[in-house]
Amino acid sequence: MRKFIDRRDFIGAGSAAVASIGLASRLSPLQAQSLKPLSFQLSWIKSIQYGGYFGAIDQGFYKKRGIEATFNSGGPNVDPIANVASGRSGIGDRPIGPIIIAKEKGIPIKVIATVFQKSPYSIISLAEKPIKTVKDLVGKTIAVATSGRPLMLNLLRDAGIDPKSVNMVPSSPDPSALVSGQIDAYNGYSTNQGVMLQTRGVKIHVLNVHDLGLPETVGTIYGREDYLAANRDLVVSFLKASIEGWKWALDNPEPTAKFMVEKYGNPGLDYKAQLTEVKESKPYIASATNPLLAIDVPTFEKIIEVYRKVDLVKSRMTVKELCDTSFIEAAHRA
Q1: Is the pLDDT confidence value at 227 over 70?
Q2: How far apart are CA 150 and CA 61, in angstroms?
Q3: pLDDT at site 31
Q4: Following DSSP, what letter does each residue of 8-49 receive, concatenated?
Q5: 35-118+217-332 and 121-212: same fold?
Q6: Region 265-269: what's the mean pLDDT?
Q7: What CATH number has the domain spanning 35-118+217-332?
Q8: Which of 143, 146, 194 shows the shortest CA–CA distance to 166?
Q9: How confident is the model at residue 41 (pLDDT cuts 50, 70, 90)?
Q10: Which fold has domain 121-212?
Q11: pTM for this prediction
C-alpha cells in the first residue's frame, strides 16, 4: 500500500530521499493529477524489445517529467499505424517499412526518433547449413514475410540472382520450420527469432541484410503530424524520459528482463530468452556514432531510395517530409 505524503513532508524529505525510495510510489494526489497522459501504440506485444520504455516507467523517469505514459500492446490482430492515424494513440513505433508505405498513401505521420539505429533484420540459417552469402540462396527455400518480399527480390537482383531460382514461402512468427528442415533460411530478426532458436539450443548463422545494402530501422517512433504539433513539449519530454529509460535498461539487462517477465510483459515470457534478447539488442540500439534514439538522416535517405527502387515509393518523398529530427534533437539538449 502506498504511503500518503503531504506537501511539507515531501519538501522536507528532499530530492535525494525521493530518488532513493522511488518517485513513482511517492507522488501526492496533487502531483498525480498534474501528470499529462500520453498513449503509445506498440508495434508488437509487450516484451523486452520495449524494455527501455518499461525501464522508464519502473524507474519513474516519465513521472519525473510529468507524464503518465500508457503503452498499448500490438500484435498480429492490431493495425498499429491505423490506431495512431485515428488518434487512439498519440505516437507509436513500427519498423520503418510500414511507416514509409503509410506515408506514401497519404497518411499524415512523421518519424521523430528510432530505437534500433541498425536493424537486426537478417537471413537466419542453421550453423550446420549456413547461408553465408545471398548467392547461397540459389536452389534454397527461404521464409519471408509478405511485407518483406519486395525487398528480398531487390536483394536477389542486386546480387545478380534470378528470383525464380529461390523458393520464397510465407513466414510465421515462429522459425521452427528451419529446425524441422522445411525451409533452408528464415528472414527475421536475429534479436527475436534468432534468440528464440538459440535459447532452444539451436546453433544458427546470421547474415544481416543491413550489411548487404538493405538498410532499415526498427522501433521507429512516429506520430500523427497534428498531434505532434499540438503536443510538442509533451512529446519532447517523453523522448527525454525514454532516452533515460533505454540507457538504464541497456546498462541493467538482468533487472529489465526480470520485470518484463514478472510485471510488465505479456504472460508466458521466458526470462532467459528476454535476457538474451536485450543483450543481443544493445549493439543495434547503442550506436557508436549516434546518441540514443537519434535519426540518422543518411540512413533514412538510403531507405527511401531502396523503397523507390522496388516501386513501394513512387512519389518524390524526401527525408524532410518523412522525418522531423527537431524532436529528438531537443530531447538531447540539456
Answers
A1: yes
A2: 40
A3: 53
A4: HHHHHHHHHHHHHH-GGG---HHHHHHPEEEEEE-SS-SSGG
A5: yes
A6: 95
A7: 3.40.190.10
A8: 143
A9: very high
A10: D-Maltodextrin-Binding Protein; domain 2 (3.40.190)
A11: 0.86
